[in-house]
Amino acid sequence: MTDLMQRMVDYANRPNPYPLYEELRRTPVVRQEDGTYLVGTYREIVQLLHDPRLSSDVRNRADAPPASEEGDGMPLSFILLDPPEHDLLRRLATRHFGPPHRPAFLDGMRADMARIVRERIETFAGREEVDVVDDLAYPFPVTVICDVLGVPHEDEPLFHEWAEGIIQPGEATGPEDLEARRGRAEQAIADAREYFAGLAEERARAPRDDMLSGLVTDDGPEGRMSRDEVLSTAVLLLVAGHETTVNMITNGTLALLRHPEVLERLRREPGLIARVFEELIRYDTPVQFVPFRTTVADVEVAGTTIPKSAAVTLVLGSGNRDPAAFREPDRFDPDRPEREHLGFGGGIHYCFGAPLARMETQLALGELVRRLENPRLVTDTPPYRRNAFLRGPRHLQVAFDGVRD
Ligand code: HEM
């Protein structure tokens, strides 16, 4: 049997990895030829997401890079750390993003986000066809995350470039290409950090109502992040908040267009969007797997012992289609009673930005469905990005008969 991971990253399987996942789930814990492990069943993924013996700290990896992945000597962002460092940095970031310290921050941005979506869709008027990726799903989240952080609008184009650069390694076609792409990613991270260093200086001198200002002037009971930690956190939010949401909006549009009865129902009942969102993230998961967890002790899962220091990949996209957790998992059904999907991960690294991702996607999809007259796919199957981990179409051409007011 060819290595399952190799087949999962094989571009030919990008439009539909789900038959492969069915094969993966036949064995809850799969050992690959290179000694790494894959886990694709719902119950075992949940177990491992909550097991402290699975480390997210890249320094525990057998192939750990000499310094950090984010540039020499720079502190790691909290997605790549374990407790207690992870928990402290996440708490310090949360103080400037949501409850209990800033309960109204995201809600305060809702009207602006709705306006951005409206203005984008207004530009569709008079056209017969748009690319949902380039015309909405790609530019929208970058504008939002720049607003969250406090990046001036005129600097936004830089962020498109950096966000794209940083995820380059996931697009590699082979080992040589991977080296080149890693180089580009490192450069993009260094450039983004340098930019944030300048902006952090400005915000420390003259704070505003944004997250960066909050982080650099924090006077909370647990102290303040170091300046380097602020930069790592800002870069993390940029990356984690961007490409994920692009795929969410695009995969969501695709699934709705392939299920016109749900689309029509959503148009009649806009309040259904919250349920539709949860089903969409389960049905076509934008972050297909959590790679790079490392065991720091022998861990027994479903009768198999994963030895200490092994690399483990948790395939969320497969867990979300596990028939043991979801009845008829391949059916797109917003009314299904089982809703505990793995789309935002689980345990201590559960997606920090989930409330923002929900708000952005619900606004974008809700407005698309409401405004586009008779929308339909121009090409089914659309072309996909190379990235197997952040999986989604590169373009999604949609034709329509007009734009409603
Ligand atoms: C639909 C869009 C999104 C999806 C599908 C998604 C998915 C995920 C997943 C699966 C994880 C867990 C990773 C792990 O366990 O290592 C995660 C973590 C994270 N996400 Fe999201 N995410 C989305 C949007 C966002 C947004 C908008 C932000 C920015 C505000 C964000 C910030 C983060 C951060 C900072 C973490 C790390 C949390 C930690 O380590 O404690 N995400 N996300």
Task: Write a brief caption for the model.
By secondary structure, this protein is of the alpha+beta class. It has helices at residues 4-9, 18-24, 42-49, 85-94, 105-122, 132-137, 139-149, 156-166, 175-205, 211-217, 227-258, 260-268, 273-283, 316-319, 354-371, and strands at residues 29-31, 37-39, 54-55, 129-131, 290-295, 299-301, 304-306, 311-314, 372-373, 376-377, 397-399, 402-403. Helix content is 47%, strand content 9%.
Question: Which short descriptors sum up this protein?
Answer:
405 residues; binds protoporphyrin IX containing FE; 15 helices; alpha+beta
Protein model, in words:
- With 405 residues, the protein is of the alpha+beta class.
- It has a single domain (4-403), classed as Cytochrome p450.
- Helices cover 47% and strands 9% of the residues.
- It contains 15 helices and twelve strands.
- The protein has a five-stranded mixed sheet, covered by helices on one side. Strands 4-11-10 form a three-stranded antiparallel sheet. Strands 6-7 form a two-stranded antiparallel ribbon.
- A hairpin with a 5-residue loop joins strand 1 (29-31) and strand 2 (37-39).
- Helix 8 packs antiparallel against helix 9, helix 11 packs across helix 13 (273-283) and helix 11 packs parallel to helix 15 (354-371).
- It binds protoporphyrin IX containing FE.
- Protoporphyrin IX containing FE (HEM) binds next to helix 11 and helix 15.
